[in-house]
Write a structure and sequence with these properties.
Layout (H helix, E strand, L loop, with lengths): L7 E5 L4 E5 L51 E2 L10 E7 L2 E6 L24 E4 L4 E4 L3 E6 L4 E6 L4 E13 L1 E7 L5 E8 L9 E4 L12 E12 L6 E6 L5 E5 L6 E6 L4 E6 L4 H12 L13 E2 L7 H13 L6 E4 L20 H10 L3 E6 L3 E2 L5 H7 L7 E2 L4 E2 L2 E3 L2 E4 L6 H14 L7 E4 L17 E2 L6 E2 H4 L3 H16 L7 E3 L11 E2 L2
Parallel strand pairs: 19-20, 20-21, 21-27, 27-30, 30-31
Antiparallel strand pairs: 1-2, 3-4, 4-5, 5-18, 6-7, 7-8, 8-9, 9-10, 10-11, 11-17, 12-14, 13-16, 14-15, 15-18, 16-17, 22-26, 23-24, 25-26, 28-29
Helix pairs in contact: 5-7
Length: 522
C-alpha cells in the first residue's frame, strides 16, 4: 500500500472544483488526545444570598449527579421576562453559564457534550453587599444580579473575563456580551473563511451549502468553540456555546472592545475554561466533547475522487491507469452514479451490475473503496427503503403544516429526510448501510448533502419538526446537529458490522462532537 501524509484527492464537480480533505476539523484546531484529571471537595463559608437556593448546595458526602457533582449555584436576576440564570462550577477553572430562553431552563441534554461526571470542587462563597464572590483554587468569580454581570480573575488578581455593559439581553433570542482585551486574538469556530484570527469579524454559525456568500458567512461546519489569546501569547481562555440553532458572533465588528453572541433560538449554555494555556484548553474541550478515533492506515494514503464515474467499466479503467502509470493511490471514491437513480443504499443494475466482484478485484489490486451516501430518501412506492421508512411513524422529519413528512428536492427528485435524532432511525440506517454497502465490500462511508441541503432552498425549512430527545422541536433550533447525527448513524452501523475494524467515515457537515464519529471533507 502506498501511504503518505496526504489526506486528499481531487473531487471535480461541474459547478465547482473542490478538494476532499480528510482532516481533523475541530474549530480550526488539531484535536489533542491527552487527558486531564481533576479532584476536589466542596465547602461553603458564608450565608447564601437570597438569590441562591441553599438547598441546592451539596455536602461533601453526597453522591454526584449524572451530569454535575454539584447542583448549579443558581443566581437569580431580575432580567426581563424572569429568565433563569445559573452558574455552575464544573471544576476549579471551568464555569458553565445557563440562561433560559423562556424563563425556566430547558431539558439539560446535549448532542455535543459526552462528559457526564465531574469531580467535586472546593470553593468558598461569600455574600457581599451587591454581589456574590466565589473562590476556587484557580479563580475568583464575581457574580452580580439585577442586572446580571460576571467577572473572573485568576488568583493573582488579573481579569480574565468581564461581561459587557449589558451582559444579557433578550428580544428575538438571547444575546450575551463580554469585553475584549486590547490586541486579543480569537481562534476557532470551524469552517469560516478569512483569517485564522476571527477578531474584528461578524459571523453567522449555521451550516449551509450556499458557497456563494461572503467568506465570513457560514459554510458546511461551524463549531461555536473559540480560544481567546492575549497579545503576548502567554494567556488563553476558551469558550463553547452549546446551542445547535443559529448563532451570530460579533467579535469586535460593531464595537472593537466588545464581543457579542446572539442565539436566535433556545437556551444559552456557555462553557468557559480559564486554565491559562491553549493546550490545556484544547485538552478540556476534548474531555467535554470527545476525541477522534485513529483512522485505518489506508485512510492516510493517496485518495482519488471526482464527480463521477458513471460505470463499473470506467472505475476499472481508472484503477488500471493508476497502476500502469505507477501513481500511488490507495482509495477510490464512488460518487452518486453508482446508485440506481440516486436512491440511497442501491446499486445501478446496468452500470454497476456486480458490485461484489468489482470491489473484490479492486481490493486485490490494492485499492480501498469509499461510497457516497446522501440522507434524502426518494419518494417511490416501489423503492424498498422508502416503503419501509414510510410505514414507520416518525422515521422522517415532519412538516407540521401538512402533518406529513417534509418533501425536499435533491438528486433523486422529491425525497423525505430521515430524523437521525431518533435512535431507532440511526440503528436502521446503520443496518441498511451494512446490508447494501459494507457486506458487498465497501470500506468507508462518504456522507454528503447533510447540512441538510435541498435544491429548493439553500437552507432546510426551519419549521420542520424533529424528535430531539422527545421534545419535537423545530429544525431551526437543532439545525447544526443533522450532519452530526447522520455521522453517528454511519459510525454506529460500521462498528456493529465490523467491530474489529477502524471505521472510516467522512462527512461534509458536522458540529461540536462530530470528531467522535467522522472526519471532515469539503
Amino acid at each position: 500500500m502506498n501511504t503518505c501524509y496526504v489526506f486528499a484527492t481531487q473531487l471535480i464537480r461541474a459547478r465547482r472544483s473542490l478538494q476532499i480533505t480528510v482532516a481533523v476539523l475541530l474549530s480550526g484546531w488539531a484535536i489533542l488526545s491527552t487527558s486531564l484529571g481533576m479532584g476536589s471537595t466542596l465547602t461553603t463559608t458564608s450565608k447564601i444570598a437570597s438569590s441562591i437556593r441553599e438547598s441546592q448546595l451539596l455536602t461533601q458526602n453526597e453522591e454526584p449527579e449524572e451530569t454535575m457533582p454539584n447542583k448549579p449555584l443558581e443566581i437569580w436576576s431580575a432580567i426581563e421576562d424572569g429568565h433563569r440564570v445559573t452558574l455552575s462550577l464544573a471544576d476549579a477553572h471551568t464555569l458553565r453559564l445557563r440562561v433560559g430562553a423562556h424563563g425556566e431552563l430547558g431539558k439539560d441534554v446535549s448532542y455535543a457534550v459526552i462528559r457526564k461526571r465531574w469531580p467535586k470542587t472546593d470553593y468558598k462563597l461569600t455574600q457581599e453587599t451587591d454581589h456574590v464572590r466565589i473562590e476556587t483554587s484557580a479563580l475568583e468569580i464575581i457574580v452580580r444580579s439585577q442586572p446580571f454581570a460576571l467577572r473572573v480573575h485568576d488568583r493573582k488578581g488579573r481579569v480574565l473575563f468581564q461581561s459587557g455593559k449589558r451582559a444579557l439581553s433578550f428580544g428575538s433570542g438571547i444575546t450575551v456580551t463580554h469585553k475584549l482585551e486590547q490586541k486579543e486574538s480569537i481562534y476557532g469556530m470551524g469552517e469560516v473563511g478569512e483569517l485564522f484570527d476571527r477578531r474584528g469579524g461578524k459571523y453567522t454559525l449555521y451550516n449551509t451549502d450556499d458557497f456563494s456568500r461572503n467568506v465570513r458567512q457560514n459554510f458546511y461546519c461551524q463549531i461555536p468553540f473559540a480560544i481567546h489569546l492575549n497579545a503576548a501569547g502567554t494567556r488563553a481562555w476558551g469558550m463553547f456555546i452549546d446551542n445547535p440553532g443559529r448563532q451570530t458572533w460579533d467579535l469586535g465588528f460593531t464595537n472593537p472592545d466588545t464581543a457579542s453572541y446572539h442565539l436566535a433560538t433556545g437556551d444559552l449554555d456557555l462553557w468557559l475554561w480559564f486554565n491559562g494555556d491553549i493546550r490545556e484548553t484544547l485538552r478540556d474541550w476534548v474531555e467535554l466533547t470527545g476525541r477522534m478515533e485513529r483512522p485505518p492506515l489506508w485512510g492516510l494514503g493517496n485518495q482519488q475522487s471526482r464527480w463521477s464515474y458513471p460505470t463499473e467499466k470506467r472505475v476499472r479503467e481508472i484503477a488500471a491507469e493508476f497502476r500502469r502509470r505507477r501513481i500511488p493511490c490507495d482509495v477510490l471514491y464512488l460518487d452518486i452514479d453508482y446508485m440506481n437513480g440516486y436512491r440511497v443504499f442501491t446499486w445501478h443494475p446496468q452500470n454497476f451490475p456486480n458490485p461484489e466482484a468489482l470491489l473484490r478485484d479492486l481490493h486485490r489490486d490494492g485499492f480501498r473503496v469509499v461510497t457516497i451516501v446522501d440522507p434524502g430518501v426518494k419518494i417511490d412506492p416501489n423503492y424498498p427503503v422508502y416503503k419501509e421508512f414510510a410505514q414507520q411513524p416518525g422515521f422522517f422529519c415532519m412538516d407540521p403544516a401538512t402533518s406529513q413528512p417534509f418533501v425536499g428536492r435533491v438528486w433523486p427528485g422529491e425525497t423525505h429526510f430521515p430524523d437521525f435524532t431518533r435512535p431507532n432511525v440511526r440503528e436502521r440506517w446503520g443496518e441498511l448501510q451494512e446490508q447494501s454497502l459494507l457486506a458487498k465490500g465497501v470500506d468507508g462511508i462518504w456522507n454528503d448533502m447533510n447540512e441538510p441541503h435541498t435544491f429548493d432552498a439553500k437552507e432546510f425549512p426551519g419549521h420542520v419538526l424533529q424528535y430531539d430527545f422527545g421534545r419535537n422541536r423545530p429544525h431551526s433550533e437543532i439545525h447544526q446537529i443533522y450532519g452530526l447525527t447522520m455521522a453517528q448513524a454511519s459510525w454506529e452501523g460500521f462498528r456493529r458490522a465490523r467491530p474489529d475494524d477502524r471505521p472510516f467515515i467522512i462527512t461534509r457537515s458536522g458540529w461540536a462532537g462530530v470528531q467522535r464519529y467522522a472526519l471532515m471533507w469539503t
